[in-house]
Structures are given as C-alpha cells and as structure tokens.
Amino acid sequence: MRSRAFTSWTRFVEAAVLAVAVCLSVGATDANSRFNDLGHRLMCTCGCAQLLGECDHAGCPGREPENGELAAAIAAGKSDQAILDMFAAKYGATVLAAPTTHGFDLVAWIAPFAVFAAALLGTILLVRRWSGVSVGRAKAIAAGAELAALDPADRERRERIRNETGMDGGF
Amino acid sequence: MAAFGSLALVIALALAIYNLLAGTVALRLIATGQPTRISPERLADTARRAGIAGFIAVTGAAFALLWAVFTNDFSLTYILEHSNRALNPAYKFAALWSGQEGSLLLWAWLLGAYGFVLRLRHKTDVKLYAYAGAILAGVQTFFLLLICFPASPFALFRGDIPADGNGLNPLLQYPEMVIHPPMLYLGYVGFTVPFAFALGALMMRYPGEKWIKITRTWTLVTWLFLTCGIFLGMHWAYAVLGWGGYWGWDPVENASFMPWLTGTAFLHSVMMQERKGMMKSWNVWLIFSTFLLTLLGTLLTRAGLVSSVHAFAQSSIGTWFVVFMGIVLAVCIFTYIYQRGHLKTEHHLESLVSRESSFLFNNLVLLTACFVILWGTLFPILSEYVVGNKVTVGAPWYNRVAVPIGLFLVFLTGVGPLLPWRATSFKSIKRNFILPVVALWVTVIVCLAVGVRPWVDAQFNTGNFYALVAFSVSAAVLTAIISEFLRGAAVISRQTGRNLISSTWLLTRRNTRRYGGYLVHIGVVIVVIGLAGSAFNRNVESELAVGDHLNIGPYQLVCTGFTQDSNALFNSEYAMLNVSKNGKHQFQMLPERRVYLSDGQPETRVSIHSTPEWDLYVVYEGANPDTGHPIIKAILNPLVGWIWAGLVVMVLGTFIALVPSLTPATAALKVPAARAIPTEPALKGGD
Q: I want to staple B249 with a disulfide (CB 3.0 to 4.6 A). Which of B101, B361, B398, B507 is the partner?
C-alpha cells in the first residue's frame, strides 16, 4: 500500500516537474515576439550594461548592429539557441544576459535552489527536533519539581552548585 | 578652506582613535575591577566626550567642502571634478556625495551624527552605551583614515587651476538625487548603531533583552531610511535612465537590497528573542551580517569589482575595505565564540505550525533571497576565477530565480500573522484562513476572466503566470491583514460602542508595533501588485514628423513640433506631443534629451503621465540624422503608481510602529468610564 502511494507521489512529482519544465521552456514563435524575447536575453555590447531590448542610447554603437544581426538571424530561420550561440561566439559569453545551462554556468542556476532546499529541510528538522526537546523538557521539569518537593536538601545543594559554576563576567 | 577641512579631519581622526582606545581601556578596567590611579568611569566619560567633539570636527570638514563647492574653489581636485560655476545651487549640495571622497566624508559625518545622538543619550544605560560608543569609534576611525589618506576630499590640484570645473555628472542633476543618496547612506550608516549595540551587549554579556528594546527604534529608523533610499533610487532610475523600468538588478542596486533583506529578517526574528528568549545567536549574526553587507556594498561599488551603470566613483580603496571587513569579521567571530554561552536559548519551538515557526521560515526566505542576490552579483567574479570566463548575470536570471522566492515571501507575509504563538489547532487554522483562501480563488477567477492568463495563444507566458500568482496571493494577504484589523476593531466596538473606524484607530494605538507592522505589510503587498503590472508592459517606437501620430493602448500621441534649446549647462532637444484618449485631447507631453556642455554626456528627461491604472512613459530617443525627425518611444507601464503608493503606506506603517503604544492606564482614561472594558487578551497579543 505504502509502495503504491509512494509510486503515485513520485509520478505526480515527475509530472509536475515536467509540466513546469515544459511551460518554462516553451518560447514565443512569431518573429516580433522572438525578436523582443531574444532582445531581452542579450546584452548591449556598448558597455552600458543594459539589455539589448532595453538600451535607449540614441546612436548607440552596439545596439543597431546587434539588432540587425538578430533580425537577420530570425529571418534566416535559426533557432533561439543557435542565435544565442552565434552571438556568444562573436561577442563573447558576456553578451548573454544570463548564464547558460551547461558547464560551470549550471552552478549559477542550481546553487540558489539547492541552498533554499537545504535551508528549508534544515529548518523543518530543527523545528521538529526543538518540538521534541520542548516536550522532553516539560516532562523533565515536571519530574524535577516532584523530586525537589520530596527532598529540600537536594534542591538546596543543586542551587548552590548552580551559583558556584555560573559564569557572569565580561571582557 | 582646504587647510581648515584637512585639519578638521585630522583632529576628528585623533579624537576617534582616543575614543576607541580610552573607551576600550576604561571598559576593560571596569570589567576586571583592577585598581587604577584614574577612575575608569572618568576615563570612559572622556572617551564619550571625545566622540562628541569628533562629530563637531567632522561637521567642520563637511562644512569646509560645501564652502569650497559654493565658492567654486577649483584648487581642490574634488571640486574641480564634480562641480562647475553654472551648476544649480541645489545640485551643489549633491556634489558632496557625487564622488568617492565626498561620499566617504558624508558617511563619516552621518556616523558622527548617529554617534553624537547615542552619546548624548548615554544615561539610558551608561555601560552599554560606552561599549557601543567605543565600537562606533572603531568604525569611525576606519572611515576617517580613508578620507585623511587615500581618498582625501581636500587634495589640491597640481598645475594651473582651470577657470571652470568639469561639472556634476548629468545623471545626478535630478531633484531626487539631492535626497536619494543621503537617504541610502542614512540607512547604510545607521545599521552601524544596532551592530555596535549587539556586539557591545555580547562583549559585556548584557543581561536580558533590554539592549534589543534600546536598539529597536534605531533599527526601525535605519530600515526606514534604507527603504526610502532604495525606492527613491528606483524612481530616479525610472525617470532619468529612460529604459522604461525601475529595477535592473544592477550590482549597485543589489548592494543596497541585500542589507535591507537581512535588516528586515532581523526586525522580525528579534521579536522571538524579546518574547521568548529564542534565536539569540541567530539575531546577533543577522545584525553582524547586515553591517558586513553594507561594507560589502560599498566595496562592490567603489572597488570596481563588478561592472555597474551606477558606479560613479571607483578607486583603489577596495583593499582597505577588504582588510577592514576581515577585521570586523574576526572580531565578531572571536566575540561570538568567547561569549556564546551567554546566547543560550530559553525556549524552543513547540510546533511546526505556529507564529514562531512562521518567523523562522520568514527569516529563511529573506536570507535565501539575500543569498540569491549575493550569488548573482558575485557569480561573474567566481566564474572568471574558476573557468577564466566572465559571464553576465542579468535580469533574466534574477527573474527566474528571485521572483518565485519573492512570491513565497509575500505568501508568508499573510500566513504569519494568522498563526497564534506556541501552537495552533486545525479549528483555528480553518477559522483564520477561510477568508484569505476564498479571496485568493476569487482573484484567480477574476484575473482569468479579465485576461490575465498564463497561456497566451497556446503558449505559456511566465510573466503572466507570475502576475496571476502575485495578484491572487496579494488579495489573500490583504484579506488576511484587513480581517485581523476588523476582528480586533469589532471587539473594541462591541465593548465601547465606538464606530468601526474609531475602534480601528484605538486598536492601532493600543498596539502600535503590531498594527503598524501590519500596515507595512499592506504597503509591501501594494508594491508587489505594482511590480506584477510589469508583466503587461507595452511599447511602441516610431519616427514622428509634425502631424504624425503613434498609438499605444487607449492613447494617441500626435507630434505637433520639435525644437532645440540651450543654456549655460546643456543643449536640449525635445518633441511636443498632444495626447488624446478616445478622440478627446487630454494633455501635452514634452520628452527631452539633453547634452551637457561640460562633458558632452547625453541625458534623457522622460515625460511621464501617471494614473492609478498605468503610466504613459514617453522617451525622446534622438533625432534621425537623415530626416531630423524625432524618434519617440512610448511605453505603457501598468500599475507603476502602486509601487510609489506602497512606499507611502510602508512609511506610514513604520511611523505608527515607532510611536509608543497607549499604556493600559492611558487607554482606560480614553474610554468612557461607564463603558470601561476589561483587558482584552487578544488585543494585548503579539507583535
């Protein structure tokens, strides 16, 4: 029963991940929206540190040639990836507005989610552990109260030890 | 005046060093109880007075620099490079922070001002304030060393002194630039104060949580300044840079956002320490990190480690910052290890679903967001170091990685306040969450009905999807917060006979911190709604001869002329556009482009018409060299006004949170005697 439930959950998660991946990877297809989309995935090369699709410099030495090359590549029927590769080959990797998804660049994408997942997991485990400690401590306090009530000498001795070993000073 | 300014800086440095050394020795003597010829208390008081005198000396130096700007004293290299005779007097003030040396002097002056207030209020807790004062003096010593040696604003120009200066960077000649940098610096510098208190309290093993109560106002005010600084910067980028947006994930923008995130996390988690004695180590490290991030931000912008459109001033002082950050980190780590026994938690979480755990998750998300931004900012350097290839980490990366985290944070903004302290029951969850969940799904349905759909022409649109999630989660959060207000107000209304508005006001005054905080959350949600509007931006670009028009949304822009103008500072070109909506003339827009004479740098003056629904944003891109006709870009930016409105609500909420709550005795006096009410436990509740 557990194995069937586990399989169902696995399938559900796989389907969800696949759906999200497909959704996020699907791009626009018509030339205008492709031009706009790719213009926002490339940087202007004039050094203004703006996206090609948002560069607003009149007479910018980088924008017009890049836009021309981009329009020509779209008209030639090249795929998005081929166009991005073409720009990277010509202008260097810095022309791409985001790291690629292969090689060391992949680390840029994975690290944030890995850190988030690890932190989330750590927090959940910590809270669960603390919850257990709280319950345990409550029981211990209750037990301690009973002991102290039965033996006042023991309570006094414990208090003295606490006072003698307590630290209170600065530097 | 140069000699006076330099002398004032040297005196300030000497006083800061004395404050640091005498303060440290005095506190050490007090801690160890060693007998000495001079009373350690008197020594500590001389250190405090040196700190006060140091502020006066730095003020003198800042005055000397301003005097030099206003008298056009171009014998100073700094004035020569950042001002000129024709500069508008208001912008002459901006010259103080337009260059590196001036902005470091501003930093030192603001730190001196914060220290001045702190040292005047020392009677609140003499010993704790002495520790904090000595730590502030240490930080001040670093900045004064910088402006006395490698980055002096009073360095003299060598050679024949030119008749006029180079002028202020044109991008800075905008009204907001007179207030945006000081606001940002007030935020940056201000975090030194809670840092000093946290470190001081840890060093002296300060008993209890009183130091947090003392620093609460400092932290909130600092956070408010940083918030305003960031938003003013966004508005400046929107109105001046002319690319149609307000946030470009530029390293300098990121540098201001990171300490804001950790500072926000601190403001939340510190409540756990106040109420439950929990998360003590966490809070100490949050404030340590916030201070270190303010230094890192300055390092990033000043040392030229990363390329940025905002890096107005770069130099070689990066090494100084790296060394200082190393020293600060070492002191923090050493103090923490030595005194960590003092930070033992007094309670533990009792349930995964509780107010406490929501604070924990809120901190987790805020810190993850901070890590994401730090990672994105530094990845180009890391990539170059590891594979020898510098890559660009721009807006597309942040939009994919940071936006989902931001939306999750908004979700937590609504969930957290609905959860009770310690533990919660299913019944309580059902009662508190039913309305927000209904609001969420109603908004989803309404959005889908009006066309906010993740699928456009059978293609998945990420922007639309994020917008849909943002609108629906925002509706749920707003419903949750408003229902919290109304629930409390209804109780007061029943018991006092007041109307609902009056009851809401009394409720807020009884617990300003809690309800001021809720108002800040409402402001954040309004900002998020405004940000989500960017998914529906539209733009059109066209060359317009006289009589030509372009259409965007419901507007038609008709070119009625274009002309040129000039004055002593700049030459300008602008177009005159009559805007009509549904065939009726509405208003005129005058987008402009200036070319400054001092350095030939062009600058855009965008024409913006704002409504709650959208901004019509028109840019004069330049004239076609062949025809001479202006090239106009029109952008329709939906809901941008909500971002600025959200800031106003956030500021209002913070002000309310800063006002002390009515004490029960005072509150009772305000209620008619015949209707005096018993204390309402729900209203005394948490923060």
A: B398
- Fold (topology level) of A2-98: Helicase, Ruva Protein; domain 3 (1.10.8)
Q: Nearest CA to CA, how far is B7 from chain A (Å)? A: 35
- Which class for B474: exposed (0-12), middle (13-18), buried (19 or more C-beta within 10 A)? buried
Gap between the Cα atoms of B39 and A62, Å rounded: 69
The pTM for the full model equals 0.86
DSSP at A94: G
The verdict on a CB contact (< 8 Å) between B604 and A56 is yes
Contact flag A99-B622 (C-beta cutoff 8 Å) = no
Of B638, B436, B486, B640, the closest CA to residue B553 belongs to B638
How far is it, in rounded angstroms, from Cα B617 to Cα B572?
A: 19
Shortest distance between the Cα of B136 and any Cα of chain A, in A, equals 18
Q: Chain A contacts of B352, Cβ < 8 Å?
A: 124, 127-128, 131
Q: What is the pLDDT of residues B548-562, one digit of tens each?
A: 999 999 999 999 998
Gyration radius (Cα) of chain A, Å: 31
Q: How many CB pairs under 8 A join A and B?
A: 149
**Could you report the per-residue pLDDT of B580-600, keeping only the tens digit for each?**
998 888 999 999 988 888 777
pLDDT at A92: 87
User: Are the Cβ atoms of B401 and A112 closer than 8 angstroms?
Assistant: yes
CA-CA distances (angstroms) from residue B212 to A106, A169, A170, B87, B186? 42, 20, 18, 45, 20
Which two three-digit tokens encode residue B250? 């530029």
